[in-house]
Predict the 3D structure of the following.
Amino acid sequence: IKKLLGDAERGAPICASSQTPKESPCAMKICWRCLHFRLFGGRTRKFSRTQNNIGLWNGHYDKNNKGKIKMKRVLVVLMLLCCFSAFGAPLNGRIESIINSSKLRSADTAVYAVSLPKKQVMADINKDEPLNPASCMKLITTAVALKTLGANYQFPTDFYLLVGERGTDLYVKGYGDPSLVIERLEDIVQELIKAKLPHIADVVIDETFFADHGFPGRQKGSGRSYNAMTSAVAFNHSAITVEVLPGAKVGQPAIVKIDAPGAIVKNDAKTGPARTRRGIKISKSFTKEGEVFKVTGRIPLNAGEARQFFNVADPTMHFARSLKALLEEKGVHVAGRARAGTVSKSATLFYTAKSQALSEIIKDMNKHSNNFMAEQITKSVGAKAYGEPGSTEKGVNAYEKYLASLGLSDFFIENGSGLSYKNRVSTKDIMAVMSDMYNEKSLRDIYMYSLSIAGSDGTIKKWESPTLDGVLMAKTGSLNGVSALSGFMPVKNEMILFSIIFNGRGVDFWTGRHTAQKIVEALVSQ
C-alpha cells in the first residue's frame, strides 16, 4: 500500500501498462487487476489500457497540482478499504441489512462465519465482543466432556447389599448419570429381580459423588423443569410430568397420569361437557412423604391432554422413593424406608447398571437443550479432572483451562448449561471450539451430529427452509433478552462454521430465531 501511494505522489504510473508521466496523459489511471497482483504478491502484467484501466482521476499529471494528488491518495485509500472489506468478510453488509430490517437493530450483535478448509472469513461482525450465549454454552460443555470423559464413557450406578440385624439393606451409589429415566429404572428393577434380589429392609441412596444439588445461575423460586437440580443419583432429569385427560363421561373424575412412582396425587378435577372451556390447575407441594400434586378444575369431554412439567425439591429422595415404589410394584417386599446414606465398607456389590455411551447422551442434551443433563455432565467432568466430589466450580475450571489452551482469554463462565445471565463468551470463542472439534477427526461427527438438524429434530425441528432443512446442524440458545445460534452448514466441498448472538432488551425468542435463520441462509447463498 505504501509503495502504491508513494508511486502516486511521485507521479509514477500505477498500472504496468501505463507509460511514464511525460509520455502518457493516462498515468493517473489505475488497473484493478494490476492492483490485485501488487497487493497480494503477484507480479504485474501488461494489459490493454482501454479495456482494463479504470480512471480514478481523469486529469493529466501535473507535479505542481498537489490538490489532485491528495484527491488521488484519498480515492486510492477508499478503494483499498473497500477491497479489503469485501475480501475479508464479503457478507457483512448483507447481514447488517438483515439485522437492521428486523427488530434487533438496537441489540448487541455478533456474527462470525468461516468456511473450511479454505479458512475464508465470510462474516465478521463484533466477533471479539463477549456476550451471553445462553444454551450455546453447551457447545463448550460437549467438547470438554468428549475430551475429558471420552465418547464411549458410560455412567455407572452401583447396587450393594448389606445384611444387618433388621434384614438386608439395598444401597445405591450413583456417579451422575444424566440419562436415568423411568423406562431404564424399570429395566434395572427387572435385572435386580433376575439376580435374586432378596426382600429389602431399607433403600439407602449414596449421593456423595457430587458436592451438592444446586449450581450457580439456577433460577431461585422457579418450579419449572428446565430449572431442575442435580444429583449423583438422579431420576427422570429431576423432573416430574403431570398429564390430565377427561374421563369417560361428564361428571366423572379426570384421569391423572404421572411419571413418578413415589409421588402423591390428590385429584379433585372433573370431566366437563364437550366444547366448554378448560380450566385445569396443577399445584405442587413438598412434604416428608415426598412430592404432592393437587389437581383441580374441569377438563371438557372432547379435550386433549393438559400437561405440565415440574422440577423436584429433593432429587436424591425422588430417586429413592421411585425405586422403592417400583420394587414393591414388582413384588419385592420393602419392610423399611427410603433414605440417604453412605455405602458401608462391609456392603457387597450386587449389580452395576450402565448408561448409554456419552456419544448418545449428548444428542439428547443438545438436540433438546437439556439444562439438567449439561449440569450433571459439568460436575462429572469436574470430578474426573480434579477429583471427587464433582462440582460446578471444578467443571468450570476444566472449561476455562480448555479455552485457554485454544489461546482464548476474554470470557466468563458461571455454569455449563447456559442457564445464566453472567456467562460471557464471544462468537470467536465459540468458533474456536467448533473448529477444534471439527479438526479432531475421531470426534468430529459425534460432535456435529449431536446438534439439532433443521426441519428434522430437536429445537429447530419446526424450521421451514428448503435451503437448510435436513442439512444444517446447529445449537440454539434462548433466555430473556438473549438469542443465539451456532453450528455447521455443509455446502458443496466446504463446511461453513458460524456463530450468531443477539443480546438486549428487545431480543425475543421468535425474532432472534427468524433473523438467525435469514443470516444462515445468506451465508449459504454466497
